[in-house]
Predict the 3D structure of the following.
Amino acid sequence: MKIPWPLFLAWKQLFPTQRKVSFFSLLAVVGVALGLNVMIVVVAFMKGFQHKFKEDIIDAQGHARAIPLSRSKDWSKLQKELLSRSEILAVSPYLQGPLLVQKQDYQSVPLSIGIDLSSGPSVLPLDEFLKNGQQRMDAHDAVDVTPVPLSQNLQDDSVFISQYVANRLGVRPGAILRTGQSKSLTDPNLGVRVYAMDYQVPSAEWKLKYLGEGEWILRSIGLNFEEKLRPEGSILDAGPGTPVFEVMSDGMQPEIGAESIYQTFRSSTIEVFSPSMIQRAQANEMIPPKEVRIGGIFEVPWQGFHAESMIGSFRLLEDVRSVNGLCDGMFIKFSPEISTDEEKLHALCEELELPRSVNWAFVPWFVENAWFFDLLKFEEYLMILIMVPIGLVAAFAIAIALMTSVLRKIREIGLLVAMGGARVSVGSIFCLQGFLIGLLGAILGCGLALLFIHYRDAIMSFIVVRIAGDEGKTGVAQFYDFYSLSVPYPWESSESASTFLTFALFSILVSTLAGLIPAWRASRMNPADALRNE
Amino acid sequence: MLYAMNKSLALQASNLSKTFRLGAQELQVLQGINLSLPQSSSLSIRGESGCGKTTLLNLLARIEQADQGELTWGDRVMRCDRSASRDEVAHRASFLGVVYQAYYLIPEIDVLENVTLPAKISREFDASVQDRARSLLDQMGVGNRITQIPGKLSGGERQRVAIARALLNRPKVLLADEPTGNLDERTGEEVMNLLLRACSEEGTSLILVTHNLAFARATDRQTFLSEGRLNEV
């Protein structure tokens, strides 16, 4: 292949024969690569945050909310109408408002959401929220084996509360500790584990013993309870108010007489008052509060979801607030074809509003939280604005180095013209050096960015441990959850590919432009004067 | 003396003048130079330092603009009071070879790459060019140094490489500006013999600028530049 001679000389000046690389080339390429790496990584992380917040928001409030603009009782009709559309997967009504909750002398006023028990879990990932909110107890000679509460724990006489409310009131959901276990049951293939525990399990000591031939016995001496059990599938369930166990037999039988001993702690109760109940109490009317049990503690990753909050059943809030037949809105979940395309989602919401524009507003998640995403976008642009001058500083350094090279090579420039080289071609040697530095820097920078994205958790952990130590790492990760940050590779997302491509082209362009002034200077040089240069 | 155009002439200069302006001061270094160089012949130019020998070579190579005069490369006639056109620059790559006192080899590329560079510039680079470059380097006695970079060669070796480079495109005319000026007497003599022999074998006309009388005498014609005028000796 015939390489144009200016490109050949540009390459050779950067990577001379018999030397692997010149010091200037190495510094220039690494400089461009580091600058590009920083730009790509910062923007990729910002987009990762945007993506994570988007998922968190959708988890917390669905793809859109239908909000009644006036009090009306036609929501169930609308719910059916919406569900009849193929683009809508689930619709769940909710009631929402502040309630006063109390445990002895401790009080809290959480924002309370009442969700429909049948349709709510199909819109809100309650099990995920409960998993996030679970905390383990530390106990001497005992292991906290409390399973993550299930969304089925939410009934008309139970609630899920946020950690903030739990801490304020000093309440907790039910817990179960394992205080003893036969050695043969510690084998992960033969052991038993607590599968589920509903909020009605009382405080007691439980013994689960293997009787042989697949039969178990569950006893609670304090409760005067005893029941022989055989696993259904792998589940040992003695009915409501008892812990449910899972047997991991793996085709083998445990030793006869092997047993596990557990201690359960009943979930706390709290009293719930509505504002109207308080008003009536102030008028000396005796209204008994509603007593409910704590079914679980939840944590919603989206910070916009109130920290002081409570989730109860729709009927519980209806009952406490005495608002029969009304709802404060409906969470809507759309099919992936609509939910992944913001334009389509927006258009569909507008279409849904049209025939009932007076009564209902349909608000997509990105409209409701536009302020937040505008803020993130602003932050992203600000970062770019700060980083672009850093890239330009690298370009200035390249320009100065190339200009020095022109001054050092004045007689060679004269010679090339004397040998018949066109001035433009001679000048382009320096411009091409800038281009090559930019190109190699872009390749290396993209590679570094890919490595950074691949090892982001390890790198962030390393930095966080250096700053906050091993203990502080958990706290930092709770506030700044980089572990769950999704940063796609360019081959996984067109947005990521566009980020890589845009910044790589920017680096190449800026480096090439940095070579333009030296190139112009070289091309304007009089060859005779250049050859006379001492 | 003005020479009439002749088919057998490789290069002809008519009435070339050059004045350098240093502020208000004017220094006329060349006054109405006439010169003709038949094909496959050689001509030497001697003169005191600063008399304008290199300037004359620059005018003949069209890398410097004259005040007036006309220049003919083979059958191409050019006015010298304007800078070289793109076409003339491109033609220079194949018509002229230039050898300088200071060699001017490109330090980042090896000997073979330096020698083949004129072919790359004139876009005549192909597989045969490498063979010719090797043959010229063998002829110059540096065939065993083709993979070396210029920094590892002696002064004499560098000048041999520079001569091979100047001859690569089979130029009609070779301009040599004090090619032995940086070399010791013995090496200079060797290099000069190689240069004259190569030009003779290649059929290339030679204009040699030198201070050395013996080298000047080795050319077909000797001239002396003094007070801006070129006189045949």
About this structure: The longest helix of chain B spans residues 185-202. The first strand of chain B starts at residue 9 and ends at 22.
